[in-house]
């Protein structure tokens, strides 16, 4: 779906570590069926021009050499280094209900709670007292020197782009990450605001920790302006954190343009595109069972090929022989969702009389509350065009 839409997709952390069929040599991954499948699947219909597939690395991934494997064996062009846990201050947990599996994950370098190699824990598991184990990823505490050396190594192996992924931390952390990104001449960095994530995190922490996306973007833009004045390298910025529709994307980009060009070059999304795929596959399964709701049939029809506004376009591009696969996998659902987003962005831009994304700027926005104006620096509605308004009438 991402490949035919021309969007980049990031393979998240822990894929190789969780792959039951992965092969390790000297604690380094030398083969991962799961990661190989993801990369090859994306490239099947990728045009090689728009988008690409990136492989993300956290601490465990780097320790087991996932970035090296992805670059050397799978010829991945983009490696994304994860600072922290994205939208989360901690996290990356998976519940495991098999003792041998828990032991395997610990041997691969993960923190597993309770300790599956503890004899008393094993006995408690057999008795049913301990019913499951939690696999946790370590928090990110990057060493700048090590990071820069690793980046040099990856580039020497042919990696074309280095991305960084981080979350909604304190302003000093934003400054720290931006400075390292500048030193490494990173190509892009994604900041993930509170309200983001894929739902795997401890609920109390996600509710109480982190910074909402709008505050986070304001801090990031402040850093960009300081770095620009100092002549520092500024990576392309992607914002994430609860984005699901076109007006949020337009606002994020416009807010980042102080008159030259937008600092925000992209918006990263997870839950919304995943939902588009899952929901489309859900209704396809209902159609197979002849169990579609009547109101759905009346609106969209009863055959899967009639569910998507993009069907005729996909047939034209990939042929009728590939349409069934695109529908069954949810790719058509994702493509149609992105088509909706793209159309919505164009409509909003035309409304502003802006015909290129890089022409969107802060003058296209207004703050509805004093709090929003204070945080973003965007004028309130009653202040918009105030001086220009008077000059037009008095000159």
UniProtKB/TrEMBL annotation:
MF terms (GO), sorted A to Z: glutamate synthase activity
Domain of life of the organism encoding this protein: Archaea
Pfam families per UniProt: Glu_synthase (PF01645)
Family: Belongs to the glutamate synthase family.
SUPFAM superfamilies: FMN-linked oxidoreductases
InterPro entries linked: Aldolase_TIM, Glu_synthdom
Naturally occurring in which organism (per UniProt): Ignisphaera aggregans
Single GO BP term: glutamate biosynthetic process
Limits of the Glutamate synthase domain: 145-256
Protein name, per record: FMN-binding glutamate synthase family protein
């Amino acid at each position: 779906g991402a490949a035919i839409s021309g969007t980049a997709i990031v393979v998240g952390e822990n894929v190789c570590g969780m792959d039951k069929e992965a092969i390790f040599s000297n604690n380094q991954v030398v083969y991962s069926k799961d990661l190989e499948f993801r990369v090859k699947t994306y490239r099947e219909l990728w045009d090689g021009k728009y988008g690409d597939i990136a492989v993300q690395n956290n601490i465990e991934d780097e320790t087991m050499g996932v970035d090296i494997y992805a670059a050397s064996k799978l010829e991945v062009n983009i490696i994304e280094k994860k600072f922290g846990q994205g939208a989360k201050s901690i996290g990356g947990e998976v519940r495991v209900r098999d003792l041998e599996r828990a032991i395997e994950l610990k041997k691969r370098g993960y923190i597993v709670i309770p300790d599956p190699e503890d004899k008393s824990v094993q006995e408690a598991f057999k008795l049913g007292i301990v019913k499951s184990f939690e696999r946790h990823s370590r928090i990110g505490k990057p060493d700048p020197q090590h990071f820069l050396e690793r980046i040099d190594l990856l580039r020497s192996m042919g990696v074309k782009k280095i991305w960084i992924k981080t979350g909604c931390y304190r302003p000093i952390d934003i400054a720290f990450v931006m400075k390292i990104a500048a030193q490494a001449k990173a190509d892009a960095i994604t900041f993930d605001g509170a309200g983001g994530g894929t739902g795997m995190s401890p609920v109390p922490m996600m509710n109480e920790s982190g910074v909402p996306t709008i505050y986070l973007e304001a801090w990031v833009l402040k850093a960009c302006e300081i770095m620009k004045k100092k002549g520092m390298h500024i990576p392309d910025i992607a914002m994430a954190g609860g984005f699901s529709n076109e007006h949020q994307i337009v606002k994020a980009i416009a807010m980042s343009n102080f008159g030259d060009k937008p600092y925000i070059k992209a918006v990263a999304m997870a839950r919304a595109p995943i939902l588009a795929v899952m929901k489309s596959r859900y209704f396809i399964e209902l159609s197979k069972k002849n169990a579609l709701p009547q109101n759905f049939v009346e609106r969209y029809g009863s055959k899967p090929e009639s569910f998507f506004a993009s069907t005729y376009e996909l047939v034209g591009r990939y042929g009728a022989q590939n349409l069934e696969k695109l529908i069954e996998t949810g790719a058509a659902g994702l493509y149609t969702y992105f088509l909706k987003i793209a159309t919505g962005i164009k409509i909003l831009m035309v409304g502003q009389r802006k015909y290129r994304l890089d022409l969107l700027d802060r003058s296209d926005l207004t703050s509805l509350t004093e709090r929003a104006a204070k945080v973003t620096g965007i004028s309130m509605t009653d202040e918009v065009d105030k001086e220009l308004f008077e000059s037009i009438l008095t000159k």
